[in-house]
Amino acid sequence: MIAIVGAGITGLYLGHLLQEKGIDFRLYEANDHVGGNIRTLERDGYVLETGPNSIRMNADFHGLLQDLNLLDEVMYTAPAAKKRYVLKNGAYRATPSGPISLLFGSFFSFKTVRRILKERRLSPEDIPGETIDAFFRRRFGDDVVDYLVAPFISGIYAGDPKALLVAKAFPQIKKWEREYGSVLKGFFKGRKKSEFKGVFSLRKGLGQMAEAMGQQLGDRLQLGAKLEGLEKENGKWHLELGAEKVAAEKVVLALPAETLAGVLGSVDGEMSAALARVNYPPVSVVQSAYRRSDVPHPLDGFGALHNHLEDSGTLGTIFSSTIFPNRCPSDQILLTTFVGGARTPERAQLTDNGLKKLVKGDYRRFLRIEADPVMTHIVRWPRAIPQYDPDILDAHAGLPRLVEQKIWLAGNWTHGISVPSCLERAQELCEQLLSEAPANSVI
After folding, report:
1. Which of 30, 51, 90, 255 is most buried (CB neighbours < 10 A)?
2. What are the backbone dihedrals phi and psi of residue 276, each rounded to the nearest 5 degrees, phi first?
3. Measured between alpha carbons, how far apart are the two ends of the chain, in Å?
């Protein structure tokens, strides 16, 4: 029997794949709900995402949604959400959406555009421990880092590009440089082609997908089963799950690094210590609804990202009701704003009133909103997103050592933080569990 612990998206999808193949397994989850970081709240006419807000469609997700009978529930981003804004010189500016707007738009100076185009002729370099900041400054120059890369990293990782390792956080981009000699050449030549395009959610939010996956697993899923101990007896792993003790030949622990650090102390002390060092900065999510008539800004985009060079209190804002109009009553708009992260962790720990004041200050300056919100909802993630910085290297290096003992680790700290990366990891795990082949590939 295979025991999977952790019903986040990785554990759920692994269970889905094993169920399709008729493999004997059980999935255990400590909470009373599935989905991990993916969770949707429905409240008084609002659809509130407390974790990921949307996902890029690909063949894996299309197949999964088809299996779950959820294709009719898919909502793609509205055409009005095409623009992406970045805070630059105290105001929101639309970023280039393609080669034409890059060459002939006003976001970058002619000098910067020329520097970007020069990247095609730069020689590739293999620099051990190179950070995202150093990599993009080397290949594209300062303006691209300060006004595209840094805001992007702030929005995706809530991280510091001067700390994150490019080979870990964006292995595909590093691969393009290595194989094509240029990131730009690799982007156009090395992209994976897919018939499925667009960014999507579901009518009732992404939590609808996670709940459907849990329901499909039936009695193979057990909620309220917290892993409290793990030891090997007579060639099998015995898991203490509350009052229950379960025996399994193979174990998959799809859990956050800090949780694993406690569980694996008696199994692999070195790995336990490495897992405890993985960084997770805090992030608070503030969702605010306003009467549409009280918001002067057209909100004609996906949202706006900030960086450390500009005077702002938050990491950025998603225009949630522009992306998916059903997220709030029709006469209102819904904004989702992120606070804290690696650069300003103390801000995520402000009181509720402190967070509301900070967010309203940014709304007033950049969206010209003077009115009070009609609804505010706050979610706190004390340990939000794992950082792919040097402190994660030892944890990644220890993964194959545990596979030798028939323990596989998973989660957004192992092979990528995105939801698609978690699905890819689940597919990889499924193959390894069935083949017994050691897992030596770590990004």
Report:
1. 255
2. -65, -20
3. 28
Yes or no: say if 265 and 273 are a contact pair by the CB < 8 Å rule.
no
Model pLDDT, residue 436: 61
pLDDT reported for residue 195: 80
Q: What is the pLDDT of residue 440?
A: 43
Q: Which of 321, 49, 322 is nearest to 209 (CA)?
A: 49
Which residues, 6+ apart, have CB-to-CB distance to 276 below 8 Å? 257, 258, 261
Cα 15 → chain centroid: 21
In this predicted structure, what is the pLDDT of residue 104?
79
How do beta strands 316-318 and 332-340 pair?
Answer: antiparallel
pLDDT of residue 441: 39
- The 3-class secondary structure across the chain, one letter per residue, is CEEEECCEHHHHHHHHHHHHCCCCEEEEECCCCCECCCCEEEECCEEEECCCCCEECCHHHHHHHHHCCCHHHEEECCHHHCCEEEEECCEEEECCCCHHHHHHCCCCCHHHHHHHHHHHHCCCCCCCCCEHHHHHHHHHCHHHHHHHHHHHHHHHCCCCCCCCEHHHHCHHHHHHHHHHCCHHHHHHHCCCCCCCCCEEEECCCCHHHHHHHHHHHHHHEEECCCEEEEEEECCEEEEEECCEEEEECEEEEECCHHHHHHHCCCCCHHHHHHHHCCCCCCEEEEEEEEEHHHCCCCCCCCEEECCCCCCCCCCEEECHHHHCHHHCCCCEEEEEEEEECCCCHHHHCCCHHHHHHHHHHHHHHHHCCCCCCCEEEEEEECCCCCCCCHHHHHHHHCHHHHHCCCEEEECCCCCCCCHHHHHHHHHHHHHHHHHCCCCCCCC
Bridge pairing between strands 227-233 and 236-241: antiparallel
| pLDDT reported for residue 103 | 80
CA angle 255, 256, 260 (to 5 degrees): 70
Give residue 443's pLDDT. 42
What Cα–Cα distance (Å) separates residue 201 from each residue in 1, 55, 86, 247, 327? 34, 7, 23, 38, 11
- Chunk the chain into consecutive blocks of 10 residues (it has 443) and report each block's average pLDDT, rounded to whole numbers: 97 97 96 96 95 94 97 96 94 89 88 95 95 97 96 94 97 95 90 82 97 97 95 91 91 97 95 98 98 97 93 97 97 98 97 98 98 98 97 98 96 95 96 69 42
- What pLDDT sits at residue 305? 97
Chain CA centroid to CA 270, Å: 27
